[in-house]
């Protein structure tokens, strides 16, 4: 007899359902919010765990910091501690509405055939909110979970995930996030961040020619190169290739020294040579 298969919620004798409340900090930091998890209780069926969400109005576990609820199913004859792998995971929003469910057993390897297309809630390029460990942050979807039609073999529960690029500065890196931890945007994202994420996606996809590198510089600042270390007269951004000329003449104590220009030379190819020459010294 197997007790380790995903449950439809009626397996009262073999599984226990752990309801957790997810809290997040105020959004003081534009890029990240802190997340914490609080166990509300263990229940003998999924229905009873869901009921515990719905009947917890004005409860300690449901306050202005509550972001979502997770229900994780564990086999009763197995570990159920902080590091135990659940049999199934479901996430719910503040109103107790199902967000998503991952029903394959995290204890089993090579047991995932793919996620049905109609259970894939996002598209590539969508901006989402992502719970990853102790952080909640915005990200752009870069790849979708595999479907049965993709015909991959050897997939397991961890492959049921969206690949996302997080809203963070620095080298572009991707993360794999379970659908139960991938949420719709709660509030509109400022355009400067939306542009930034879309440009990072284009770069990640290798579509550099379509990418507007100024979107990256808007957030991360320009990567200035100068023609001289002391008293430079020309500057260029290594990333977005915007160019500036210095004007040291006149009384510039309270004025900008640097003025943006379209090009330094009449022949734009000479500008490109300058970028290469300066770049090699940095
Ligand atoms: Zn730039």
Ordered list of secondary-structure elements with their pairings:
Elements: E1 15-24, E2 32-43, H1 46-54, E3 66-75, E4 88-92, E5 98-102, E6 127-132, E7 135-143, E8 162-166, E9 175-177, E10 182-184, H2 191-204, H3 213-220, E11 224-226, E12 234-237, E13 243-246, E14 258-261, H4 268-279
Antiparallel strand pairs: 1-2, 1-3, 2-7, 3-4, 4-5, 6-7, 6-10, 7-8, 8-9, 11-12, 12-13, 13-14
The chain binds zinc ion.
Oligomer: single chain
Outline the biggest β-sheet: 10 strands, antiparallel
Q: Total strand count, please? A: 14
Structural class: alpha+beta
Shape: elongated
Number of domains: 2
Query: Counting H and I runs of at least 4 residues, what is the number of helices?
Result: 4
Average pLDDT, rounded to a whole number, is 86
User: What ligands does this structure carry?
Assistant: zinc ion
Q: Helical amount among residues, as a percent range?
A: 10-25%
Low-confidence stretches: 1-5
Bin the strand percentage. Answer: 25-35%
Distance between the termini: 66 Å
- Radius of gyration, in Å, reads 25 Å
What's the helix-strand series? EEHEEEEEEEEHHEEEEH
């Amino acid at each position: 007899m197997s007790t380790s298969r995903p449950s439809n919620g009626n397996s009262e004798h073999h599984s226990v359902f752990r309801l957790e409340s997810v809290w997040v900090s105020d959004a003081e930091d534009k890029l990240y919010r802190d997340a914490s998890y609080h166990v509300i209780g263990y229940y003998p069926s999924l229905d009873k765990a869901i009921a515990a969400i719905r009947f917890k109005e004005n409860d300690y576990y449901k306050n202005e910091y509550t972001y979502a609820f997770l229900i994780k199913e564990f086999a009763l004859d197995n570990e159920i501690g902080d590091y135990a792998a659940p049999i199934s995971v479901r996430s719910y929003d503040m109103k107790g509405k199902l967000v998503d469910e991952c029903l394959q057993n995290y204890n089993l390897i090579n047991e995932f055939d793919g996620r049905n297309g109609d259970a894939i809630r996002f598209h590539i390029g969508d901006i989402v909110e992502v719970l990853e460990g102790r952080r909640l942050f915005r990200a752009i979807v870069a790849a979708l979970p595999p479907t049965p039609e993709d015909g991959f073999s050897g997939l397991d529960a961890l492959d049921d995930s969206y690949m996302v690029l997080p809203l963070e500065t620095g080298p572009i890196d991707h993360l794999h996030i379970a659908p139960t931890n991938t949420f719709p945007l709660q509030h509109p994202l400022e355009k400067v961040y939306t542009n930034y994420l879309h440009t990072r996606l284009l770069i990640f996809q290798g579509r550099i020619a379509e990418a507007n590198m100024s979107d990256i510089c808007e957030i991360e600042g320009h990567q200035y190169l100068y023609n001289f270390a002391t008293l430079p007269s020309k500057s260029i951004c290594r990333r977005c290739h915007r160019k500036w000329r210095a004007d040291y003449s006149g009384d510039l104590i309270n004025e900008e020294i640097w003025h943006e220009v379209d090009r330094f030379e009449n022949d734009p190819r000479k500008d490109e040579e300058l970028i290469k020459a300066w770049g090699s010294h940095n």
